[in-house]
Amino acid sequence: MFVRKLGLAVAALVALSAPAALAQKQYGPGVSDTEIKIGQTIAYSGPASAYGTLGKVEAAYFKWLNDTKGGINGRKITFISRDDGYSPPKAVENVRSLVEGDEVALIFGVLGTPLNMAIRPYLNKQGVPQLFVAAGSSALNDPAHFPWTMGWQPNLRDEARFYAKNLLAHNSKPKVAVLYQNDDFGKDLLNGLKEGLGEDADKMIVSAQNFQPTDPTIDSQMVILQNSGADALFLFTYAKQAAQAISKMSDLKWKPETYLHLGAASVGATFKPAGLDKSTGIMSAGFMKDVTDPKWADDPDVKTWTAWMKANMPGADLNDSLTAAGYSFGQTMEQVLRQCGDNLTRENIMKQAANLRDFRTGLLLPNSRINTSPTDYRVVTYMQLQRFNGASWDDVK
Question: 307-355 pLDDT, tens per residue?
Fold first, then answer.
């Protein structure tokens, strides 16, 4: 009888403690009752240093969250961002240090396809979220093989196919020239362009010239492309080479129909160095509001962003689209961590990133909604073709 009563008592105790156990906070590395550690490696120096603005804005955003909202769900964000000079080996070194030394919960907002591809095997082997990378490679949307890696901006192949569709709509037999970075980033865009142009792609592409990101100039490639007789040019580059290409086109007095990779479609990082007048007519796939465009002057979200920038990043160039992008990256990261509640294991952080529902940041174009799933990691998918008018962007109907 005593044994039976003891058994019942134990059962009752287990039943009473079960809800408390379920309600317990669950933490992984880098998380406590007061802190969430987020790691980043990004180019503050080197050929892609203009994109270091992303890291600076994200750091300011997390500081603002800490100062004004007490962090996220009562936990302050510790954001550790290190310079990699746009070097894949350095990025790998930084990430290992962040994971094994600093014990961050996740890696966030790493710039560039080659760098993200270099760190992806390690992070997936370790089970560390690699979230909202600043690169659009289609390879970064592969949850079946790399379930810990997720992009943010539109997919590179989708972007290039989008341009091809537009070109073919009014020019059925274009003569196409392509300047592309000789790595996974540039080749992904080139392959997407060929897919979009269809079975005659190899005939339509009359010249394709590549460059290394460390090359001091792309002048010789631009001369070859002009001499090909092309009437359409695709610039699959980042800001530095895009600015050089636009400037060289002006020197050559060459005015092909020009499509620019959306990641380089920055007034501050690309068009100002090249010359605003020289950049007039360049087209790109818009997916965010151009905060400098008068048509958004009374938009509540743009007003909120402008006030935030003036308060938190005084002196920053509001014309630089990278500032708006960094702000939006930060908002998306915040949403994921809020959805996690008190379950801040790496597994649940990734689960919540793959379960965003009709979420949008205020600076995305109005028709854009973010919906992710365990089988589709694409975050931003909506694009609108836009043309630079020398000051801001016009929609191409």
Answer: 999 999 999 988 888 899 999 999 999 999 999 999 999 999 999 999 9
Beta strand pairing status for 257-260 and 343-344? unpaired
Q: Measure CA 23 to chain center.
A: 35
Annotation: CATH topology of 156-286: Rossmann fold (3.40.50)
* Number of residues in the chain: 397
* Amino acid present at 375: T
User: For residue 31, which amino acid is it?
Assistant: V
Q: Which two tokens stand for residue 44?
A: 């503050």
**pLDDT per position as a tens digit, 10-45:** 454 444 444 444 458 999 999 999 999 999 999 999
Sorted by where each begins, the domain ranges of the chain are 35-154+299-382, 156-286
Give the Cα separation of 125 and 127 in Å (integer). 6
Both structure tokens of 315: 């002196």
Q: 35-154+299-382: CATH homologous superfamily?
A: Response regulator (3.40.50.2300)
Mean pLDDT of the region 56-81: 98
How much is the pTM?
0.79
**Two domains, one topology: 35-154+299-382 and 156-286:** yes
